[in-house]
Amino acid sequence: MFVQHLQFAYPKSRALLHDVTFTLQPNKLNVLIGMNGSGKTTLFDCMTGALRPQAGDIALPDQSDILYLTQSIYYSDELKGKDVAYFIGRLAQLTDFKKQTTYSASLQSRREIDLFHHLWQMKVGKMSAGEKKWLFVTLLTTIPRALYMFDEPTSGVDPATRLHIMRRFEKLIADGRTCLFSTHQLHDLLHTDAHVIFLHDGSIVYEGDFQDWLQTFQTSDPDVAFTKMLDLATEPERANTMP
């Protein structure tokens, strides 16, 4: 699965994505990182067909075999967790889509099982942002797909829930699925086998192993590596603006 030489611009505006090229690794967590406004969500939208790029090749599974969770989750506050599960289960044509165990069978910890049981009966409007994200990730990863894409699934989520979400992604990889997600929570990657794709100002400035990326900047702190990567990426821009 890969993206090659992708370019995209909104009408009557400058190009937002420039010659974007990268390859998704099937046996690693693929992680898209970058500053706010760097083009991450636009790239996801191009990859899933929500936007049509002006140029480039996208070699991914058929759209019916891709699951994409955007940052914004739109459901009526009056719906209960089980109603959301029924909707997702029916769309995915899951057997016994009304059974709670259809979605919770793969949960490993008692805390997750108890939380799922609690949210099953709770109205969406009463859930915290973190509970909503955890519930949606749990429900959606029950659906078998070749490629899973999540846009900032751990933002606004407490550390314990982030850990559960990361373990959910790792299970997808162990089951032979490909997973790509964007995040600003770089410390979550310290104990995972991650393939990093760094998007800056619409271009890929780094692609490779997460630990190799840290070693490049001689640090064990991903936030420090991120800052140094930005400094390195903006040096040509500074040179072009010098008198």
UniProtKB/TrEMBL annotation:
The keyword RNA-binding does not apply. InterPro entries: ABC_transporter-like_ATP-bd (IPR003439), ABC_Transporter_VariousFunc (IPR051782), P-loop_NTPase (IPR027417). Keywords: ATP-binding, Nucleotide-binding, Transport. It comes from the Bacteria. SUPFAM superfamilies: P-loop containing nucleoside triphosphate hydrolases (SSF52540). Residues 1-226 form the ABC transporter domain. The keyword Metal-binding does not apply. Coiled coil: none annotated. This is ABC transporter.
